Amino acid sequence: MHHGSFTSHQLRALCLDFNGAGETFPFNPETSVFKVGGKMFALSALDADPLQVSLKCDPDLAVRLRAEYPAITGGWHLNKRHWNTVLLDGSLPDRLVKEMVEDSYDLVVSALPRKQQLLLDWPGLRGG
């Protein structure tokens, strides 16, 4: 199994690759907040070392991921029931990190009005 380590550039590109995703800095110039439909799905201080990202997560899955991976903890300064903070130290498979970012995006988009989901051409509307 390949274990990678994401760079801040790769993380930003991954977050911005989703339809309608944007990067804002509501807290300070160092903290990137990635949003879709005005709602946050990822939060990261991209120049931090080590790099980490906070992601929205299904509460049951969040608990399972934290139990399985030491690099995944309850969301720092966020609702720990719905958010995980993921340490991108190379200990997690790249595929898992990508899935967690996509799941976070999908959770946020799934709560948006259907009209917005259609505008985003969200795959969740097609059942895929």
UniProtKB/TrEMBL annotation:
The domain of life is: Bacteria
Q: Could you list this entry's UniProt keywords, alphabetically sorted.
A: DNA-binding
Q: Which GO terms describe its molecular function?
A: DNA binding
Cross-referenced PANTHER family: CYTOPLASMIC PROTEIN, CYTOPLASMIC PROTEIN-RELATED
Q: What is this protein called?
A: MmcQ/YjbR family DNA-binding protein
In its UniProt entry, the species of origin is given as: Streptacidiphilus pinicola
